[in-house]
Inverse folding.
């Protein structure tokens, strides 16, 4: 766990659809009409009214995000972010992935969310290299938090232990070491 001012960042092995937070982020596609992976799980848990609301949004560009209600989820809102497909790194994938985290936090702020949970966007079907994706996720959240000062809790929801270990290591690396004694 990492504490930055009033906000804690933590990684947990958990099914994101079960979290009672203000907003859960979905790893969606540009249609916003559902799919497999975490997207499918969120739509199944939220029920058909989520799809109806998504149909009214007109899709979403890669690197952007749109917000809906949570419907039958325990979360008040779902934020549908569209991560990049990994094509080797030469097609702006890093910046597009960072933009997903930035836009999601901005939408959470505008919805007055205090707690938000992210899945590892693009790390499944979209094949983004996990170590790089985790670094980008943590760095972008840290960089964006000053712009979303009401957010008090960020959860990185991991589907498996291997992904959890990556986030833990990345957060641990950023925990300030105590100041060393002057020589
Ligand atoms: N809770 C938390 N994490 C999960 C869950 C869950 N319930 N289910 C899967 N994950 P993916 P992408 C993890 O493929 O790569 C969909 O078809 C999973 O282990 O869901 O961004 C969309 O419609 C992985 O670490 O998303 C798009 O077409 C991470 O979530 C496409 O897949 C993301 O895997 C998006 O691909």
């Amino acid at each position: 766990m990492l504490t930055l001012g009033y906000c804690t960042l933590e990684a947990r092995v958990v099914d994101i659809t079960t979290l009672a937070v203000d907003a859960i982020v979905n790893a969606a596609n540009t249609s916003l009409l559902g799919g497999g992976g975490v997207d499918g799980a969120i739509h199944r848990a939220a029920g058909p009214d989520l799809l109806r609301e998504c149909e009214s949004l007109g899709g979403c560009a890669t690197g952007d995000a749109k917000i809906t209600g949570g419907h039958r989820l325990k979360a008040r809102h779902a934020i549908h972010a569209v991560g990049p497909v990994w094509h080797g790194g030469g097609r702006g994938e890093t910046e597009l992935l960072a933009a997903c985290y930035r836009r999601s936090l901005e939408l959470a702020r505008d919805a007055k969310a205090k707690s938000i949970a992210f899945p590892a966007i693009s790390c499944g079907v979209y094949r983004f290299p996990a170590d790089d994706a985790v670094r980008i996720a943590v760095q972008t959240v840290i960089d964006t938090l000053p712009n979303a000062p009401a957010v008090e809790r960020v959860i990185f929801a991991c589907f498996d232990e291997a992904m959890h270990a990556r986030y833990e290591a990345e957060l641990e690396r950023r925990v300030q070491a105590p100041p060393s004694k002057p020589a």
The radius of gyration is 16 Å. Residues 2-176 form a domain with the Leucine Aminopeptidase, subunit E; domain 1 fold (CATH 3.40.220.10). Residues 15-17, 27-29, 35-39, 41, 83, 119-126, 157, 159, 163 surround AR6 (CB under 6 Å). The helical segments are 37-46, 48-55, 93-110, 130-144, 161-174.
